[in-house]
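Task: sequence design from structure.
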């Protein structure tokens, strides 16, 4: 297929490369020329605007930082909707708030284009390996149409429901993950401060009712597990800044729909404090350092 791709950052670049590897012809755009050049070297053609990247393609994918960038790229004068032909399906894989996802999809529909929100989990490793999970919001017909292409960038492709529900799935999962990581940090810190060995405590939790992904797969306490960010100074993994972004999106969505997110708000504030201390570049499990005494 002829595919347009806008947003060639940490996630977008490897995703676009996987589409090239699958044999598609790609027209790409990014505001950073270096990112465009890297994709050109891999065989893509470059466009001078989102509108041009979207013209003469059969499908368009965007992978942008957040909601304002998505609005700009789709709705501005030189945006996707000013260049794309009616009938071309649009996929936004950025993590943004569900309200913006629905607003942009409505504008696209009025222009004659179906649009799916398809945020991902799996990080840069998953983007490179083509093993991402896609959480797709949009009609079932659109889901069936785009699933084969998403499968060339991911392994697990899930239809979550109508427009916006892909973003809902993504931010609700990360809301829970942000809270559970803080819960595990608190329990691990208290236990070790009270004298129990960290590995023994983690072993008990992981075979008891406190068990969760943050405790048994991604434990934040150093020395408990190998091959997790806690074992390598909290480098790699999922950045605390990205967790802060997702928690803030969840809070914004909760505010608009007047839903309580009591623990989520506390978690967001803890990540905000952590980030303001200059630690936003570390893996999000480093939040345990808010509890631990400095050596
Ligand atoms: P990134 O900042 O590395 O990449 C975003 C790209 O968009 C950049 O190349 C930037 O130049 C480009 N861009 C910004 N404004 C633009 C515009 N107006 N027109 C064209 N290009 C523009 O971010 P990323 O890590 O690739 O993440 C992309 C999205 O995926 C985010 O919404 C993020 O929350 C989500 N996500 C990231 C990860 C991760 O591990 N990095 C994991 C899951 C989901």
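Answer:
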């Amino acid at each position: 297929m002829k595919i347009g791709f806008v947003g060639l950052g940490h996630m977008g670049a490897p995703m676009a490369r996987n589409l090239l590897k699958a044999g598609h012809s790609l027209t790409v755009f990014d505001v950073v020329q270096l990112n465009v050049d890297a994709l050109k070297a891999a065989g893509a053609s470059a466009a001078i605007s989102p509108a041009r990247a979207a013209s003469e393609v059969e499908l368009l994918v965007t992978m942008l930082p957040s909601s304002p960038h998505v609005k700009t790229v789709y709705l501005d004068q030189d945006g996707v909707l000013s260049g794309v032909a009616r009938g071309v399906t649009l996929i936004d894989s950025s993590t943004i708030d569900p309200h913006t996802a629905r607003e942009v999809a409505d504008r696209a529909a009025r222009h004659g284009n179906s649009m799916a929100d398809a945020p991902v989990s799996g990080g840069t490793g998953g983007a490179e390996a083509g093993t991402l999970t896609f959480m797709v919001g949009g009609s079932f017909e659109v889901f069936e149409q785009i699933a084969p292409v998403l499968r060339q960038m991911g392994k697990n492709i899930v239809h979550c429901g109508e427009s916006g529900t892909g973003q809902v799935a993504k931010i609700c999962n990360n809301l829970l993950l942000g809270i559970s990581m803080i819960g595990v940090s608190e329990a691990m810190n208290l236990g070790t401060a009270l004298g129990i060995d960290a590995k023994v405590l983690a072993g008990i939790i992981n075979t008891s009712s406190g068990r969760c992904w943050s405790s048994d797969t991604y434990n934040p306490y150093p020395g408990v597990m190998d091959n997790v960010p806690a074992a390598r100074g909290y480098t790699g993994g999922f950045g605390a800044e990205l967790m802060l972004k997702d928690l803030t999106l969840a809070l914004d969505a909760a505010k608009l729909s007047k839903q309580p997110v009591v623990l989520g708000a506390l978690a967001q504030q803890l990540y905000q404090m952590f980030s303001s201390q200059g630690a936003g570049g570390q893996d999000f499990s480093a939040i345990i350092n808010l509890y631990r005494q400095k050596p």
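Residues 6-12, 29-32, 35, 63-66, 69, 72-73, 94-95, 120-121, 123-124, 238, 242, 245 surround nicotinamide-adenine-dinucleotide (CB under 6 Å).
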